[in-house]
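User: Look at the shape:
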Amino acid sequence: MASIGAQAYQEEEDARFNAPLLKAPCNLCTLAIPGVKKAIAAGFFYNTARLQKDGSYRTVKHPQTVHIHPSSSLSQQMEMSPLPPCMQALPRWVVYHELVLTSKEYMRVVSEIKSEWLVEIAPHFYSKKDILDDGRKLPKGKGRAGMD
């Protein structure tokens, strides 16, 4: 009798193991991305940078010029894009995991964020004046007007 129970258990386990994995519909994935980015920003709020006119970034609280590391997915997206460089838009605000100094100061593990999240998730660290765009326009193709 025990062998019948063990056999049924094994068949159930085999069926569960061999069951096809269901993929979440794309619209659910895209709905979750802003939440994930916001969670990353909450963990790394200290490491934020804003796009400058020359295409480099400037860290917010302790200003220094930094660049997106060539191994970053954002950098690779720009390289793989079929659009010419003048039409590619860099994110205006990013959060990064670490800075690496080589020939330049590079940000590694970079994610695009919305600037208003910073005041929301770290009001003890950022004020509205820290994140306000100063009204200067970026050159054509050097920044996204906004993230929808």
